[in-house]
PH domain-containing protein
Amino acid sequence: MNFHSLPKRSLVIWEVLAVVLFGAGIFAAWVLIPQSLLIWYAVIWLLGALFILVAFLYLPLLYLSFSYCLSDTDIIVKGGVVFYKMRFLKRDKVSFVSVYNTPLTPFLKVSMLLITAPGAHLVIPFLAQDEADRIADALNRRLSSHDADH
């Protein structure tokens, strides 16, 4: 089985979102907490330490751990940092496949692929837009040929 990883662009997007969120947190602390209080310094140090852990440890480990595989019989998605999990879905059980695009998709070129079966679904986030479309087309072709057989 050949496992594929997410594009590097997804890690960059996660890092930019982390910078924006932590910047908003620091701005909120600057506005809401008087700067002469000791708690202001504690909040800033705590936000800084949390940012370093998330941006330089958690997000890169999450990026490295996330992968997916499309075999002839199964769809496998695995990943996680603290709780590593592998999710399996039989290809013949797939009900429908959706590709979700956001208003930023034309700029970022990433989409989310949602594969649904009765009682289960798999999500592959931040997948390259052309790869998501290719996988969705292949699964939909197989789904329509499977429906024509029955």
About this structure: The chain has four helices and seven strands. The chain has a mean pLDDT of 89.
